Amino acid sequence: MVELKNVSVTYSTGVDALNNISLRIDDGDFAFVVGSSGAGKSTLIKLILKEIDATSGVVMVNDYNLSKLRRKKIPEFRRTIGFVFQDFRLIPSMTVYENIAFVLRVIDAPRKYIRKRVPYVISLVGLQDKANSYPNQLSGGEQQRVAIARALVNDPQLIIADEPTGNIDPELSYEIVELLKGINECGTTILMVTHEHDLVRHFGGRIININSGEIVFDEVIGGNNEA
Amino acid sequence: MKLSGIRYLGRQGLDNIWKNRMMAFASFCVLLVSLLLVGISILFYINLNSIIGGIENKNEVIVFLDENINDSQLKEVKSKLDQIENIDEISYYSKDEAFESMKKSMSDYEKVFDSLGDDNPLLDSYRIKIKDISFTSETVTLIQELDHVYSIRAPYDFVNILTEMRKIITLVASAIIVALAIVSMVIISNTTKASVFARRNEISIMKYVGATNAFIRVPFFVEGMVTGFAAGLIATIITWFGYDAVVELLTKEVNILNIIGIGSIIPFNDIIFKVAGTYILAGGCIGALGSVISTRKHLNV
Asked: Which of A83, A95, B111, B256 has a 20 to 30 A CA-CA distance from B13?
């Protein structure tokens, strides 16, 4: 669950990135965050990841109060969130398997569990044949699927996808969102930032539109595919 | 953290050396050169000191005794001398021995000696080796206070020159060694920084999936340490061969040095374990610390 109450963020340069916004995303929701560049989408994401702190207001993510979260607790908190980035951010020196297994090693999972869990999530994203490939041997769509598998592997409550379709072919974009939708149906909250309006219109659902640091639209719309 | 976790991180560190072999090789070379620079300077200094020590050992203070000294008085002086801390060796040199050796060294003047007949104008003496020649004058003062001592001849000029030389060499050598150590540290820290910088994306990804700082650092620590150990090992081997080659050259080719105590050069076999231990330990510590400290900046994500 993500909850923001009267949150403002002012950067040290004096730029007001977010201006007194309140927002609540319940467990099991799927929400698109849209808005032009510079509107404050990235700031929102950074806030939720505790890369930056709110200048004022309260940010609650997965029952952690981020303004009171101590530095030492950040790793523990981040393990409750999965991330998918526009540029994939896979570790180039590790194979697909190792990239995903790494997340479990970080949380000190038993080796038996790793050996079972990693192949399972790889099969979920349909990359069984690529488990031993390196990221640079994969297409953009495949790399993003690896990133989704990585976000999924430790069964997080919330997955944040920051423009996950930004670097891949349009026809593959739908596949990626389908994949996220499927994960959402299993109960994981998903927050997807995008500026591809076609995609949003196609799938529908909850749309949060941010403009100039304020939420200008937050409603559920029907998608084309449901009509 | 479980044992399997530690083993995993250790292996990651070793794998990283191979995966980042260019940077690892750069760090290795920088460490190797730094260790050699500082190590060789220190060895050079130690040997110079040892050579001076060898020369110092040739010091001799001669204590002339009263003209008509008897055996019990001789013993008394000897036991008093034995009690003086700064005296290394005492040897008795009777006036007859002195007379004989003088005759030999001045054989052209046989007639002069003949005219003296049995009348020996020389004095019995004790010849003394001083332990620490920088305290020669203090020791001489102590000896002067003893009974039956007629006069003392001490090599003050020799002592002063050596003491001054030692001071200057120590000063210059420490300055050079400290400067080299600082330069090495700067280069090493820059190299490890570059190596870590090349992997900052990797570090930030690890942070995003919730890795603790320790988890990220352990592989870097292992990697730096192993690289440092390797540099220390190779430095030992290079120093070994280089050192032996120089010693051989000096002892075989340069005869002049024999006179001033080339025998005081320390054989490498005597210090090989010290040298290897220092190199490997220093290499490991500098390598490990360098890479761990360099990761710090990238950990605050």
From this structure: A83
The domain A2-80+157-226 having CATH identifier 3.40.50.800: the answer here is: no
What pLDDT, on a 0 to 100 scale, did the predictor assign at position A136? 93
pLDDT at B257 over 60: no
What is the pairing mode between strands A56-61 and A2-10? antiparallel
Token couple for A112: 């038996």
Other beta carbons within 10 angstroms of residue B118's beta carbon come to 5
B87-93 sheet: strands from edge to edge: B87-93, B125-130, B61-65, B149-153
Higher per-residue pLDDT: B139 or A118? A118
* Cα B290 off chain centre by: 27
Structure tokens at A52: 């930056």
Residue A65 pLDDT: 93
The domain ranges of chain A are 2-80+157-226, 91-155
Q: Report how far residue B37's alpha carbon sits from residue B128's, in angstroms, rounded to the nearest whole number.
A: 40
Q: What is the CATH number that goes with domain B61-154?
A: 3.30.70.3040
Radius of gyration of chain B (CA): 31
- Nearest beta carbon to residue B210 from set A89, A107, A110: A107
Nearest residue to A183 via CA among A14, A28, A31: A28
* For helices B268-299 and B21-56, angle between their N-to-C axes, nearest 10 degrees: 140
Tokens of B89: 């060796």
Identity (one letter) of the amino acid at A24? R
Contact residues, chain A, for B17 at CB < 8 Å = none
Phi-psi label, residue A64: left if phi above 0, alpha if psi -120 to 50, beta otherwise: beta
